[in-house]
Design brief:
Elements lengths: L2 E7 L4 E7 L2 E2 L8 E6 L2 E9 L3 E3 L11 E3 L1
Antiparallel strand pairs: 1-2, 1-7, 2-3, 4-5, 4-7, 5-6
Pfam families: DUF5348
Protein name: DUF5348 domain-containing protein
Amino acid sequence: MKQGALIFDELTDRYEIRFDLADYYGGLHCGDCLEVFTGGKWKPTRMEYGDNWYLVGIRAEDLNGLRVRI
């Protein structure tokens, strides 16, 4: 598994995982599964879109910067 941080790409209107300075996942789509580090442990989730992008079962006002692995 690779670990990185969620960032929003305004050009594609999608969230992206940044692994390193020049190493990116390639854009997340609805249904993509990943894990988020929250509350001191890794929690499985998936990316979805409703009125905005969100992670199923994860409460966060801003997804930018969340530690994730895929």
